[in-house]
Each structure stands twice: as C-alpha cells, then as structure tokens.
Amino acid sequence: MRLLLICSCYIVVIFSSFARAGGIDLPAISASQQGTSNSNGAEAADAAVLYYNPAGMSYLRGRQLSISGTLLAFRGKVEDRGSTGTPEPFDSSSDEGRQLGPDGVDPYAAGAAGSFWPKILALGSIFYTTQYNDNITLGIGIFSPGGGNINYKSDWSGAYQVDAIALELVNINPSISMRFDDKHSIGFGVSLVGGHLRYSTQLDAKGLQPYLLSKALNNLNANTLTVTPEVQSIINSVCNIKLVINSVCGINVGDVLPGSAIDALSSPLADVVVDPSSTASGLIEMYGYGFGYNAGYMYGFNDRSRLGLSFRSAVEVNLRGQSEWSTERLKARPVIGTTIVSLLNNGGDPDLGNFLSDYLLPDTTTKAIFNIPARVSLSYFNEISDKFDIMFDYTFIKSSVMRELSVGFAVQKDSNGDSVVLSDAKIPLKWRDSYKTSLGLNYHYDSMTTFKTGIQFDKTPIPSKESRHPALPESDRYMISFGFNHKINDNISVDGAYSLLAFADSESEYRNNCRYDRPEGDAGPCTGIGGTFRGKFYDTYANILSLQINSKY
Questions:
Q1: Which of 113, 346, 348, 533 is the S-S candidate for 415 at Cβ 3.0 to 4.6 Å?
Q2: Tens digit of pLDDT for each residue in 247-259?
Q3: Residue 532 pLDDT grade (very low, low, confident, very high; cuts 50, 70, 90)
Q4: Would you indicate the residue range of the signal peptide (predicted)?
C-alpha cells in the first residue's frame, strides 16, 4: 500500500540546522582565531591556520601543535504568533488546521518554548604541522566544522515540527603546503567529514486521526465493516449541518461503508475511533560521512603583510540510520474504536498502536544526502607598526545550492506481506548565497603578551520568514571578540578568547504545503501533513569562551 502521511517533512530540516552555510558556522574553531573574530586567516600565527588557509602552514617553522577547547552558552526566546496543526484531509480550501499555542485548543502543543538553546555546548580542535624541508610543510587538523544541540519543551506550540535536535560533525583534514619563494606559497588538503544526527518530534495525533482512519479503511479487504448505531448517529449529525454529500446521508445501520463515505466521514469518525488523549512521537538517528578538499594561496608583499585566498569544496555527507515511531500511546476509544481496529488488524488485535506500527508506520532504515556548501575566502594581514597588526577576512558561501532537503525511507512488509511505502520527506529551502566578514586588531603589549579584538558579521542564507523553520531559528549574526596570546617561554604559549554573539530578532511563518491528498507542486508524492508555524525569535545570544595551548619544538 502507498502511505503519504504521518512523518512530517519537518524532519529533514535537521540537516540544515548546523550546516556550514551562511551565518551558521560555529563561531570558534580555535581560540587564537576567535580572539580576532576569525579575521586572521592570513596571519599564520599557529597550526590552526590549516583550517583557514593551508598555504599559511609555509610560514610556520619546526613542529607546531595547537589544542583548543571552547564552551558556548546559548540562550534564545520564542513567542508563538498563531501556529496551526494538521489541516483537515480532502479540504483544499484552506491550509490552516486548528490553532496551537497557549491560546489554542490542543493541550499537547500549548506550552511556551522558553529557552530553546542548551545552557552549555562544548567543542574542541587539534592542529599539528611539521616541516618536511625548507619548502614543504605537512599538517593535520581534527575539528568540528559545525554542530550543536537545540532543545525545546515537548509541549510547546512547535512540538509537531521539532522537539529536540543534536548534531555532531568532525572533520579530519590532512594538508600540505609548498613555499616557492618569499612571496608565493600554496596549500592543499583533503577532508573526511563524519557526522552523527539525532532528531525527535512529537506527532500531531489529533490532526492525523482522519488521515489514519481514511488510509486504514481504504486498505480494508473485508466486507464486514458495517455501520453501527454510533456511526449512524455521527452520519445524521453531519448530514443535518450539510457537511457531507447526500449519498453518505443515505447510509443506514448495517450497510458496508463505501470508499466515498470513508473520505467524507474520516474526520468525524476519527473522533470516535481515536482516544483524544492519544500522543505519539518520532525519532530519527543517522550516521554518515563525506569527502571534500581545501586549497589556498598566500602572497607575501613583504615581511610585514600578506594576502590569502582559500577555497573549501562542497561536501556530500551520505547519512544512513533508523526511524523509530513511538505509537504505543495512540489508543482507540473503547467499544467502537477497538472494534474497528480489531477488524482492520490481522488477528483481531484491538490495539491501535500495534496496528499503526505494523501496517502504516513501521520502524525502518533511512537515508539522506546533506550537501555542505562550498566557500571561498579572501584575507589580509598587515603589521602596521611594532605595536599594532590589522587584518580582515571576507568569505563567500554558495549556500544557494541548498534548494531542498530530503529523507528517504526503506520499504517494509506488513503482517500480510504487503509493502508499506513512505514517500520521501521533502522540504524546500530556497536559500540564497551568503557571506561573512570580519575585522581584527592585535596589540603587542610587550614581547610576551599580545591582546586581540575583532568584530564579525554573518549574513543569514534564509531569505524570508516563510523559509525560517523553528528547527533553524537563524538570522543575521553580530559578534565582538576579545582575546590574548601569552608566551610562557620560547616554546609554549597560551591563547584565550571571549566573544559575545548576538542574533537579530526574526519572524517565522513556515508552512508545510505537502499534504497527503495534495502533493507539493509538481515534485510528486511526498510525506507531510501540513500545518503552519508562526512565531518570533528574540533575545538570542551566546557567550563563547575558549582556551588554547600552543607548542613549538
């Protein structure tokens, strides 16, 4: 049988939530770079330059090791502004379902989100470089290009779009640089990017009821589902207010429900079949990897200034995993509900959750391809005096390649040996190209200590409130940083940095147009249940603290 429902297509947004696109970079790869708000890619101060421009390794002498750790304390607020649940099936006149949020009618999506970031997020990096000879330097970096953890409350108004997300990405990046003379050097590296993704959401049990019943009844191969007095009373009620066609109104007790009646009665019958206290949730966990490369060029004007150009390729991360649907809390009402379910279920089991997990929503394997966009960076460094250095960086990100994200589900067999097919869950992103720019300053207090500062602006790739999903409360970002480098001796130094990262207030009016009976545009069938999230994200910021140890030998 063909199933085009339940698993909301919101699940695919998880792949964009922490992608290296536009303003969604992690703000700190290393403390030495964070201190100038990531503007010193051309400075080549330590082994962490491998990430920003591998050609900069040519300016490092001997063997160098940099180990950095970062703590990020995020916090943000969200206000509901009229979110709605799953629209009624077979109704093309409206994309609006029942109202959610504190003023809505659904007790399972009526709470406030409160803080939607974790209090503390930790990450780290390690970079090592060694001179092979006077002209060639080798290096390797292990770092996180993106990742994080967002937690909402399980009963907030967007619970049917996203409950919690956790993503970890690790990049292993061996590199090589070659110095031709005092002015020209190049670098090249390859990347192995590994990822782990965990996403959970609450399922709109009330909104899904008519879809579930309609699909279940239309796949019934028995002629024993007859109209009971309870069903007859519902038919009479809806006929009295002229909500259904006359042919349905002519059905009597003892008649077998035809397909046209099932479509027309799916919504009112669902209230009889499904217990209104029912809840359900979904979990998807995936692992994967992808390959890419990076390259760079560095031009030294003189001993005091240089210009860098670097490129990181797009990376296709192939993810594979498992979907797990918690349907045990979906219960049928006593008598009529359990009777109908027992007729549908092989072996007469009256448990609605068991029926759904077997015939409509089995646990299955999942797959997806997540494209990390390519980027190109231009950076400049200049020692303007013995006391001051200035630097800047401009990075362009080809985030417009993120047009759509999709998750595929493997075909499973039900107890009767029939195929249970869930169409791909799809979401259009329609992102635009984006950029980030930063400006930094070093102040050499003395021969042992340098103080740093910098500012950074990140342009979000999200073009409008209609494209802003609650799993990605992303907007333009502003960062100011302060840092230092202190030499303990000729071989060991320490970097420290603090940054305040602020997000611009933003609005969301994200509508899932994919419906069971009305696929999205001409893209073909898709898994989705509709509904709209409306809200405002505000007072979103992060305090970032990093510490780094550098060793030369």
A1: 346
A2: 566 667 667 666 6
A3: confident
A4: 1-21
Taking the C-alpha atoms of residue 425 and residue 5, their distance in angstroms, rounded to an integer, is 9
pLDDT bucket at 94, cuts 50 / 70 / 90:
low
Q: Encoding tokens for residue 266?
A: 């799916």
Containing structural domain, residue 471 = 2-552
pLDDT > 90: what percent of the chain? 41
Q: Exposed e or buried b for every residue in 492-525, given b needs 16+ CB within 10 A?
A: ebebbbbbebebeebbbbbebbbbbebbbeeeeb
Residue 77's nearest CA partner among 20, 159, 13, 153 is: 153
The one-character DSSP state at 467 is G
In whole angstroms, what separates CA 156 from the centre of its chain? Answer: 18
For 271, the enclosing helix (H) or strand (E) is helix 259-273
CB–CB of 495/538 below 8 Å?
no
- Residue 258 CA to residue 281 CA, distance in Å, equals 32
Which H helix or E strand runs over 342? helix 336-344
Long-range Cβ contact pairs of 93-99 (< 8 A, separation 24 or more)? 95/511, 95/513, 95/530, 95/532, 96/532, 97/207, 97/530, 97/531, 97/532, 98/206, 98/207
* Cβ-proximal residues to 367 (8 Å cutoff; 6+ apart), any chain: 318, 319, 320, 321, 407, 408, 410
Coil, helix or strand for 404?
A: strand
Give the dihedral of Cα atoms 443, 449, 455, 459; nearest 10 deg.
130
Domain count, the chain: 1
Beta strands 419-422 and 449-458 are unpaired
Give the closest residue to 297 by CA, choosing from 135, 435, 188.
188
Q: DSSP for 207-237, please give it.
A: HHHHHHHHHHHHT---S--BPPHHHHHHHHH
What single-letter amino acid sits at 90? F
CB 159 within 8 A of CB 200: no
pLDDT band at 517 (very low <50, low <70, confident <90, very high): very low
CATH classification at residue 172: 2.40.160.60
State the first-to-last Cα distance of the chain, in angstroms, to the nearest integer: 66
pLDDT reading at 215 higher than 80: no
- Res 464 pLDDT > 70: yes
Residue 74: beta bridge partners? 542
